[in-house]
Specification:
It is built from 7 helices and 4 strands; from the N terminus they run H-H-E-H-H-E-H-H-E-H-E. The chain is mostly helical. It has 2 domains: 1-76, 5'-nuclease (Rossmann fold), CATH 3.40.50; 91-131, no CATH class. Helix 7 links the parallel strand 3 (109-111) and strand 4 (127-129).
Length: 131
C-alpha cells in the first residue's frame, strides 16, 4: 500500500484526525511504502506543528521513528539528522537539506534565502548571498 504524509499525520496531529482515518488504521496491517518525499513532507509538517506548540519535539521524534519504522522509504537514513538541524537553526526541512549538504561537502552555499544564509554563517559555512 502506498501512503502519503497526510494519511500518516492523521494519526499524529489532532487537527488531522478523522473517523475514517482511525477506522482505516485500526484494520490496516501494511506493509506501507512511500516515495522519498514522504520523509520531507511528514517531518516538515511536524516541525511546523512544533513551532506553534501543537506537538512537542519528543512527540515528533517518536512519530518520526514510528512511521519510518513501518514504511519502506529510501531517504530515512538522514531524516533525524535533518530534523535536529532544522530545529536548531529554525529552518524548514528543505533549507536544512541544503545546509547539511554544504557542511558535509565543505562547499559554499549559494542562496537568496535570508534565514538559510544566516544559519550557514552561524555554522561557519561560506556563503554567496545573491539577494
Amino acid at each position: 500500500m502506498i501512503i502519503d504524509a497526510s494519511a500518516a499525520l492523521s494519526q499524529v496531529l489532532p487537527s488531522q484526525k478523522t473517523t475514517s482515518a482511525d477506522e482505516f488504521f485500526a484494520d490496516a496491517a501494511g506493509p506501507f511504502s512511500a516515495p522519498d518525499i514522504f520523509v520531507w513532507e511528514f517531518i516538515n509538517t511536524l516541525l511546523r506543528a512544533e513551532r506553534i506548540g501543537v506537538i512537542t519535539p519528543k512527540a515528533s521524534d517518536s512519530a518520526i521513528s514510528d512511521w519510518l519504522g513501518v514504511i519502506e522509504i529510501s531517504a530515512a537514513s538522514v531524516a533525524l539528522a535533518l530534523t535536529a538541524l532544522s530545529r536548531s537553526q529554525g529552518l524548514s526541512l528543505f533549507d536544512s537539506a541544503y545546509l547539511e549538504l554544504a557542511e558535509r561537502l565543505g562547499a559554499p552555499l549559494v542562496s537568496r534565502d535570508f534565514a538559510l544564509l544566516e544559519a550557514a554563517r552561524r555554522r561557519g559555512v561560506p556563503v554567496h548571498d545573491l539577494r
